[in-house]
Design a protein that fits this description.
119 residues; alpha+beta; 7-stranded antiparallel sheet; 2 helices; globular
């Protein structure tokens, strides 16, 4: 799993609309006791699940949202950890170039920050 972190002042519904519009994917809402607030949204893109939720994982004092990128086994497409990390980087770049917010990508040696677009 590869993780991205960012902050927006909007609620999960509005944030979902913004994020998945940029990614170019339709999202599906899900409920889980394992996520903060009990609700998350998810999209399937190119063999990956991209899940948006309120951040309760790491860096929650800095970022209120987390995007996780994992293999979507339901597609039947095979991906590996390196591909997950690369896809997370592509998503981070898309978001940072098209929205005025910084995106932090969690890497093995810390966070890589993609600066947001200037509005």
């Amino acid at each position: 799993m590869a993780n991205l972190f960012f902050s927006l002042p909007s609620d999960l519904a509005a944030t979902t609309t913004t994020i998945f519009r940029v990614i170019g994917a339709s999202s599906v809402e899900g409920d889980s006791a394992n996520v903060l607030g009990g609700t998350y949204t998810m999209a399937s893109v190119l063999g990956f699940k991209i899940k948006l939720e309120l951040n309760s994982y790491d860096y929650e004092d800095q970022y209120n949202y987390m995007l996780s990128v994992t293999e979507d086994y339901a597609t039947g497409l095979r991906v590996d950890d390196a591909m997950e990390e690369a896809m997370a980087g592509i998503v981070a770049q898309l978001l940072s170039k098209n929205l005025p917010l910084a995106i932090a990508q969690e890497l093995s040696d810390g966070l890589h920050i993609y600066a947001g677009a200037v509005s």
